[in-house]
Write a structure and sequence with these properties.
alpha+beta; D-amino Acid Aminotransferase, Chain A, domain 1; 27% helix; 31% strand; transferase; transaminase activity
Length: 260
Amino acid sequence: MANVNGAPVSVEHLLPLALTNYGHFTTMRMENGAVRGLSLHLARLVQDCATVFGAELDAQRVLRYVRQEVGRCTDPLTVRVTVFAPDLDMAHPAGNAEPHVLVTTRPAGSLAPPPLRVTSLAFGRDTAAVKHIAMFSQLRLRREAQLAGFEDVVFTDPDGRISEGCTWNIGFVDGSGQVVWPDADMLPGVTMRLLQGAHRQSIVRAVPVGELPSLRAAFATNAAIGVRAIRAIDDVRFPEDDAVFAALRDAYVALPVEPL
């Protein structure tokens, strides 16, 4: 279920995460011992480690721990790699950091989950380009959305532009059938980047909330879900099935996989 630096997880391993909650991670979907965008996930970990800890992370070391945790399992798994430094604490976060690697796995869900109904709320991630583990604010707003009867939340920036979902990127289909990715301060997801390269009819531009009624369709995407239709944002409804969704899903499935 989990290891830290290749050793079984103990309470002592997890205390720094519980008490300090400072670190970064990536989440990837593994099927038959392979991952789409594996090199991008590893590059993210290396880059974020330099940003968060000012330390170098050995990607091959990470791979070794992932392989150890996955073993010979061929069932679809969601693999999360979390990097943290147990020697750092709240009083002295500027100390020398020795990155530790926590690998956890869980069964992966379907790549065809049901469509989402979401609400839009104003929010901006701290250090948006880093996939860090400080997620209180996002989860608080997801909770607020679910208590209001929605399934999830999509965020808007101070200028009223759509940026991203709680734990996913968002894309739209315009009237011409072109995929539109928001130009905003956000975490650039690996799956989004893969789809941008695989689907040629894609552009990146600002998407104001006021433009939603004129867009043809909307979808969420991340490594765990692939491409998931969004059936409504606030009171703007979208079709649950659009021809572009099938093209995006086909492009995603056709992407080359990288063996662990």
